[in-house]
From TrEMBL:
It is a multi-pass membrane protein. The keyword Transmembrane applies. This is RDD family protein. InterPro entries: Pra-immunoreactive, RDD. The chain crosses the membrane at residues 26-48, 60-82. It comes from Nocardioides lianchengensis. Coiled coil: none annotated.
Length: 150
């Protein structure tokens, strides 16, 4: 799936602003999510070890919790989860400000991603419901550098 181009200026649909820059493809975002999920699973296995593999284990819920915390903290601090950073993606503010989104926005965004449905509901500009509600957009590293003036 090609990246979504935004040659036109910001538009609103029921008060929702569209970014004026290119957002990352869904394929790259899915790869980043898989990297995050694998890393979160490995962290849980390192902590609870064999208990992760036992029938009825709460390991899956712990993976979800580790993912939400890791994703929210890293997104608020450095602009992307471990998976996004590893796949050269960044989360920026929808207005084009390259600074990381706030911690509460990042936490809400991560919880919504963990609920699965919000990322599946998306706009033509490539942003899912989690990005729309958080006022964010996912971009590749090249777009982030351009936004940051680097």
């Amino acid at each position: 799936m090609p990246d979504q181009a935004r040659p036109e200026g910001p538009t609103t649909l029921i008060g929702v602003t569209s970014p004026t820059f290119e957002t990352a493809s869904w394929a790259r975002r899915v790869v980043a999510l898989l990297v995050d999920w694998l890393a979160s699973t490995l962290v849980v296995i390192l902590i609870i070890q064999d208990a992760y593999f036992e029938t009825g284990s709460r390991g899956s819920f712990l993976v979800l919790g580790v993912y939400v915390v890791e994703s929210a903290l890293l997104t608020a601090l450095v602009g992307g989860s471990f998976g996004k950073l590893a796949t050269r993606l960044r989360v920026v503010r929808v207005d084009g400000d390259p600074r990381p989104i706030g911690l509460l926005q990042a936490l809400m965004r991560s919880v919504l991603i963990a609920l699965v449905i919000p990322p599946l509901v998306y706009r033509p500009d490539g942003r899912g419901l989690h990005d729309i509600l958080a006022g964010s957009a996912t971009v590749d590293l090249q777009t982030w550098r351009r936004l940051a003036g680097r």
